[in-house]
Amino acid sequence: MAILKIRRKKEFTNITAKYEVYIDEQLVGTLRNGENKEFSTNKGQHTIIIKVKGSRLSSQEISIDTNNTEYLNVSCTKIYVMMSIFRILFVLLAGIIIIFCGVKTICRDNVNSLLFSLFIALISIYFSFCKRILNLEIK
Fold first, then answer.
1. I want to staple 71 with a disulfide (CB 3.0 to 4.6 A). Which of 56, 80, 112, 139 is the partner?
2. H or E stretch including 31?
3. Helices (runs of H) and strands (runs of E) counted in the chain
4. Which domains does the chain possess?
5. What strands lie across the sheet with 62-66, from one edge to the other?
6. Which residues, including other chains, have CB under 8 Å from residue 81's CB and lie 6 or more apart?
7. Which of 36, 62, 38 is nearest to 49 (CA)?
8. How does residue 90 score in pLDDT terms, banded at 50, 70 and 90?
9. DSSP single-letter state for residue 139
10. Torsions phi, psi of 53, nearest 5?
11. Beta strand 36-41 with 69-76: parallel, antiparallel or unpaired?
12. Sign of the C-alpha dihedral, residues 101, 102, 108, 113?
């Protein structure tokens, strides 16, 4: 038997989310924020993937050859942290626009139509950049 040790870095991003560990497309366990776990596998070639429970977010697929003990680290990339800041700014700006214009009068005149168009454009930008990436690396 070989042992696969996976360490989830303690970080603010996805602090409450559980990461699901898949070995050869089989769910073998979950990881909480900052948690380390060991998984027993047969010796030989295995495919590892980490997914965020209840989300479409997953790591890249890694193939490793386990002979004795292998170490893996998993964390969210800094790209997602920048996206988190963008999300906060987006929500604040959207809230200011809605409060300033008023929900009932958002399309009453040209100025409000322009602000509404800006709001729709921001939504489009938000969803086009809304990508989180899990980084799985062999130590």
1. 139
2. strand 26-31
3. 2, 8
4. 2-78+133-138 (2.60.40.1120), 80-129 (no CATH)
5. 26-31, 19-23, 44-52, 62-66
6. 13
7. 62
8. confident
9. -
10. -60, 130
11. unpaired
12. positive
